[in-house]
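Researcher: Good morning. I'm working through a list of sequences from a screen, and I'd like to move beyond sequence-only analysis. For each chain I'm collecting a predicted structure so we can compare shapes side by side. This is the next one on the list. No need for commentary yet; just the structure.
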Amino acid sequence: MSARHGRWVRPFAVVALMAVVAVGCGSSKSSGGDAGGNTNATVQNLVRPASGAPQSGGKLTFGTESDSSGWNPTVDRWDASGTIIGVSVYDPLAAFDENYQIQPYLAQSFTPNDDFTVWTVKLRENIKFTNGSPLNAAAVKNEIDQFRAAPLTGAAAANIQSTEIVDNLTLTVTMKQPWAAWPNGLTGQGGVIPAPEQLASGKENSSRIPIGSGPFMYRSWDTGKFDAVKNPDYWREGLPYLDEVVFTTIPDSTVRTSALQTGDINATVTTRNDDIKKLTDLAEAGSIQIVSSKGETDENMVLINTEKPPMDDLRVRQAMAYAIDRKALEAVTQTDPSLEADGMFAKDSKWYAQTDYPNYDLDKAKQLVSEYVADKGPIKFELGATTDPIVITSAQLLQSQFKEAGMDVSVKNLDQTAYISNAVTGDYVAQMWRQFGAPDPDGDYLWFISDNAAPPLALNMARNKDPQLDAALNTQRASKDLATRQAAWKTVQERQTADLPYLWLSHQPWVLAADNSVRGIEGGTLPDGAAAAGMIGGVIKLTEFWFDK
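Model: Good morning. Structure tokens for this chain:
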């Protein structure tokens, strides 16, 4: 894992169960809101104006924080870095516009029936994969069917009952239950379309050699380095501008920051607080450019296994929540106080609802501990953390706060493979975590629904089962009405406060940094020319990046 300030871990994107994204803590300046009603950005965009129209040519080197297990979206694990590469060689069926509303991309349209149980997908004409085969309804059906059948990704598409080809460019997708927000899940790993020949080429080749219809095409992939070149037959006329993109893995955020300064890379992303501060200072001095993510963010938290003693007793979870002094934690991690979290949404999010989430109250924590000890004996457990020094420091501070309340807590450090595996298999009691940053909150449905709390691999890693929460999740999923969905998500937040499967700490934005020659970093356009959303959750499309020299 990359060494990054204040980092926790999480599965990223809707389906990347085993992917790890390191967490940092943002700080510095605030910026204006977006149409979604949520800035979640603590750094101003500081970019250079273009000298003229976009120019074609050049090789861009992008520093990523991790490598992927491969490029077959139905079997491989993509985190933010993997998704950046993935949406460079593949295009998704859908994308978000600048107002974070879903729009067709490879698709020409998405049309639901009245109750959102059947979606008709119409594809654009004359799009080909880089091997020359056509992007058609059969290719999309093939990807969706393999995606929902695969052990890794199947749970994300469990609500899909069947797919049926209508004509060469049209298919229908039938749901088991109404799913009004389904296209929102088609913007990344869940919606990119590989060529059928790739998916039929066997596990090793299908993962190693991607064949997409995206702006760039595979040239080579060695451990830590993915080289892609311009797709000369790209369906969006005049794009991409770059001739070549090299993605080089540099796990340590500080090293990536230095590499940007020395010119070894042209762009990178980070969530590490001290690097964000350094990059901000450099951008203010005119040395580089920075762009902050907006929209919904991930949340840093303590993830609780509600089935494991002593966490199966609500009083213990309540005592932990009351024992956490988030102000003290912010001082250790240098987290901007405006990012403090009391739920899965920031206060300026259109989805946020006020609940009675426990604030720091050591006396209440001690009282709850005393009640539990009188009934069941001492509270003793391990708090999981990664091997990153800052994560260890953060976990040790929480350990001391829990001990002050009367709990016997030790900190257990694990490498990322064991750490994530323990979460999905339930072999943990409590551990540092980050998750739940889907642009539309329906993308987090699968992490909360009770059906996904069952072994052996539980996507509901907290194992929290709450019928009221389940009903609210299904209500929001079946509706396009904003007020109905907001009311449902209010219930979800209230039930999470009542159940406390997650002890909220802070919200987590991302920052993109680039040298002064790069343009297009604030976001490109959609196929119809409308403005696209830009960076979401550390993922940015490079289709319209260019060099202004």
